[in-house]
Every structure is written in structure tokens, then in C-alpha cells.
Amino acid sequence: DSSVKYSSSALDSVGIFYTVKEFWEQIEWPDVEACCAYVSKIIEDICKSCTHFADKMSKKIDALQSTTRTNEFEVTPQWCYAINNIDYVRHSIEPLVQKLGVFKIANKLVEASDIVLGERFERTVKEMVDNANELLAAKQRDLIFNAINKMLPVIQKLLLEFEKDNSLHKLMTYLDDSLITMKEQLSSENFDRVLATIWKSVLSKMEDITESSLNQKKPHQFFKGLLETFDVFVDYFNESSDANDEFRSSLELYSLSTDELIHRYHVQ
């Protein structure tokens, strides 16, 4: 995606990997068993470098993440770059492995009647690549969850204040500001992933608020406002599911006055 923004650190890192690959190709090592050992080591180092890069990205974001004067967490372009950078590096591993001639080396080992070594070589490489992919994907998830966890207190505060003037507007503005930055900076895949995670977190928070409000025996007007807020969120996140419908039905029930409940009972 040419519109996705990466920092030079990601581009340079992958560039270094390809420089190593080109250097290895120029050597044209003749012994296939030695090739197996050397290529395994190269791939191991590339995978370790990728995970180290992801660690550095995460630590940098932890150090850079700022708050506004009201201590409201802000999604920054730097945070988006970190997500994109890790994604870029992660997706570079598999093509690099292919270009290092893993399958060609494995086939040569089989042709040399060393089937066991060939299979072990392919299996080892696959395990290294899979592990690196999982570690980098986990780093991405951590960055996403950490950001959302910092957004949730702001969202919860504004949700609890929805009865006040402009509180819902403030909440939607806060979400807009965060999501616009994400939309502009993240790849479509990462944006969709983040959006889905935010929705799940918001829904969970609304369920918590509903349960605690029931325990506090808040009036039906409170739940009526909560229902209206929920409907706004469903439209905003474009989310519709049986689980959402079930939760909405419960909210709608809690929002009814005694007279409305009696009327509904007789109608049914």
C-alpha cells in the first residue's frame, strides 16, 4: 500500500537484510550442507533482528506517548508508524527466506540422498519464521491494546457523563480525532483490526456500566440515554450482530418506565 507511511528505520532494516541476501548470493557457496548451515544462521539472525526491531519500536513509543493538558491519551502518527513499521518488517521475512534459496537447498539435499537433513532444514526454517511472525504480531497487538487501554478511561468518563450537555459530542469528537489519525496513517488491514478492537472494548465498557448501574438502581431515564448512546456507537462503528441486538434489547427493557413495562406486558 503506497499510501501507508513507514519510518526510515523499517526501510533501512529491510534494506540491510537484502544486502546480506545479495552478499550471500555473490558467494555462491558450493557445498550444499554448508549452505544449509549458513542459510539457517542468516535466517535466524534476520528473525532475531526483526524481533529486536519490534522491541525497540515498542519501547520508543512507550517513551514518546504523550497526553494532552487534560491527560487524555492521544493517538499520534508516531504510534501509527510503529504499527506500520512492525508490519512492514514482519512481512519482509517470508519473501527473504524464499529468495535465500531455502527450497532450492532442501531439494539439493534430497537429490544428494540426504532426505532427513533436507526435511530438518525446511522444518527448522519454518519454525524460525513462524516464531518471528508470532512475536512481531504479538508486539503489534500489545501496541494496539496498550493504546486502547489508555483511551478507555477517557471513553468511560464521557460515557458516564452522557447525561451532561455535549458529553456525547465530546466523546464522538475524541473518537473522531483518534480514528482519523489511524485512518490516515495505518494500512487498511491494521485500521480494521484496531477499529474492531476499539469496538469490542467500548462494548465491554458499556456492558460494565450497565451492570453497575443496575446494581445502583439507577432510574430508567439513565438507561434510555445509555440506549441512545449505544445506537450512536453501533452506527458509528458500523457494527451489527446478534450479540449486539441482544444487549440492545436488554438496554431497551431497562430504559422503560413502569407504565411502559406494564403496557408492553399486556401487548405481548
Automatic annotation (TrEMBL):
The keyword Cytoplasm applies. Keywords: Cytoplasm, Endosome, Exocytosis. It comes from the Eukaryota. One of its GO terms (biological process) is exocytosis. GO terms for cellular component: recycling endosome; secretory vesicle. It is found in: Cytoplasm; Recycling endosome. Residues 165-268 form the MHD2 domain. Pfam families: MUN. Residues 1-57 form the MHD1 domain. The keyword Lipid biosynthesis does not apply. InterPro entries: MUN_dom, Munc13_1, Munc13_dom-2, UNC-13_domain. This is BAI1-associated protein 3.
